[in-house]
């Protein structure tokens, strides 16, 4: 554990990390990492299990554990036996403590830092603690060049987000930089300086078909609005042969939209706008009395579609923010970001798990 945490680092400088930064990463990679090292070092995972390690890292009071390890010159395995085993409280968690302390020691010494962070992210006492990536000794010792640690992200680590319109892309990109700045550079958007090429669900669907036909290698997330057109196109897109490096998403349903003020030919009524007219602007802070105006009927989804009144003003207010504004309701746009991040983490996790196999 010690050596992997000391030598691993983010791909470039300037990123602020906490253990919860890894919370979106699913379980499969952490488990695969554990079992890969078990097989490589030939210890019995029935006598010391992944769940036992998970429980230890979940229950430990990380704020009470000393970070003083002395001279830190011990051999592989010995450090885990002498320093880590007791600090994690594995003697009370493991069914076979002796096996966990001795037979699994060398494997645990080499456990990925990202696996450790993923498990610590489940620990309320640890998930918001800062993470310091220590690589200066590795650099000065001549084990690796600085460029191996401080460098831009590789293209394979980034995700292209493609949306129905330019306003969707601008809002999501701004939300990432405002609310998730530590991971914003993992996401890229279509260059919109001249004109947005995929406006409308029809163009976006055809673009998706084109990407599939040329077997694009980039990681791509296609995001539809949560309205009648978007819901219908999302269902149609999911019927395609979607490769592993692509994901089809729709803006999430929100309980805030279940009883929304709407206006149409028959006057004002409260209605559920999920799947009918919830475009990206609806996920911003809408103040006290937002209204949706019904505009057209979508025959494919057999429902009416509408538009948020004053949506441009809501968007401009949000895009003008350079820092988070006290009292502004970010909960709905954060739900959008969490959905995108979780799906991208699953895509990346599946790739990493495959490499471990």
Largest sheet descriptor: 4 strands, parallel
How many DSSP E strands?
Answer: 10
Q: What would the average pLDDT be, to the nearest integer?
A: 82
Total of helices: 14
Query: Structural class per helix/strand content?
Result: alpha/beta
Integer count of domains: 2
Rg from Cα: 24 Å
Low-confidence stretches: 1-25
Strand order of the largest sheet: 2-1-3-5
Strand content: 5-15%
Order of helices and strands: HHHHHHHHHEHEHEEHEEEEEEHH
How much helix, percentage-wise, in residues?
Answer: 40-55%
Q: Note the overall shape.
A: elongated
Question: Span from first to last CA?
Answer: 21 Å
Itemize the secondary structure elements and their pairings.
Blueprint: H1 2-7, H2 27-41, H3 50-59, H4 78-87, H5 90-93, H6 97-103, H7 105-109, H8 113-120, H9 136-140, E1 159-163, H10 166-179, E2 187-189, H11 201-213, E3 219-224, E4 226-227, H12 228-238, E5 246-250, E6 260-264, E7 267-271, E8 277-278, E9 292-298, E10 303-308, H13 311-319, H14 331-356
Helix pairs in contact: 2-8, 2-14, 10-14, 11-12
Q: What's a quick, concise take on this entry?
A:
This protein is of the alpha/beta class and 357 residues long. It is built from 14 helices and 10 strands.
Keywords:
four-stranded parallel sheet; 357 residues; four-stranded mixed sheet
Write a structural description.
The structure is a single chain. The protein is of the alpha/beta class and 357 residues long. The chain has two domains: 2-151, no CATH class; 155-351, no CATH class. Helix content is 40%, strand content 13%. The chain has a four-stranded parallel sheet, sandwiched between helices. The chain has a four-stranded mixed sheet with strand order 7-6-9-10, with no helix packed on it. Helix 10 links the parallel strand 1 and strand 2. Helix 2 (27-41) runs parallel beside helix 14. The longest helix has 26 residues, at 331-356. The radius of gyration is 24 Å and the shape is elongated. The relative contact order is 0.12.
């Amino acid at each position: 554990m010690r050596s992997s945490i000391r030598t691993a680092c983010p791909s470039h400088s300037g990123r602020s990390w906490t253990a919860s930064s890894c919370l979106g990463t699913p379980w499969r990679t952490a488990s695969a990492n554990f079992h890969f090292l078990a097989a490589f070092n030939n210890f019995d995972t029935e006598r010391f299990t992944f769940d036992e390690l998970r429980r230890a890292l979940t229950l430990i009071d990380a704020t009470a554990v000393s970070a003083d390890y002395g001279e830190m010159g011990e051999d592989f395995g010995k450090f885990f036996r002498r320093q880590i085993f007791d600090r994690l409280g594995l003697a009370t968690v493991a069914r076979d403590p002796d096996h966990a302390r001795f037979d699994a020691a060398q494997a645990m010494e080499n456990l990925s830092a990202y696996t450790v962070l993923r498990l610590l992210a489940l620990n309320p006492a640890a998930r918001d603690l800062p993470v310091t990536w220590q690589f200066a000794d590795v650099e000065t010792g001549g084990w690796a060049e600085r460029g191996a640690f401080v460098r831009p992200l590789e293209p394979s680590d980034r995700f292209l987000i493609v949306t129905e319109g330019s306003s969707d892309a601008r809002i999501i990109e701004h939300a990432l930089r405002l609310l998730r700045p530590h991971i914003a550079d993992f996401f890229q958007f279509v260059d919109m300086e001249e004109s947005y090429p995929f406006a409308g669900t029809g163009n976006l669907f055809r673009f998706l078909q084109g990407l599939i036909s040329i077997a694009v290698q980039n990681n791509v997330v296609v995001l539809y609005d949560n309205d009648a057109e978007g819901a219908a196109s999302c269902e149609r897109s999911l019927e395609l042969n979607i490769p592993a490096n692509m994901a089809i998403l729709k803006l999430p349903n929100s309980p805030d939209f279940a009883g929304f003020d709407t206006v149409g030919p028959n006057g004002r009524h409260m209605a559920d706008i999920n799947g009918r007219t919830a475009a990206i602007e609806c996920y911003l802070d809408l103040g006290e009395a937002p209204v949706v105006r019904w505009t057209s009927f979508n025959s494919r989804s057999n429902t009416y579609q509408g538009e948020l009144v004053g949506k441009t003003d809501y968007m401009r207010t949000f895009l003008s923010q350079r820092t988070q504004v006290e009292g502004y309701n970010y909960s709905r746009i954060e739900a959008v970001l969490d959905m995108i991040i979780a799906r991208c983490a699953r895509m990346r996790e599946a790739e990493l798990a495959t490499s471990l196999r």
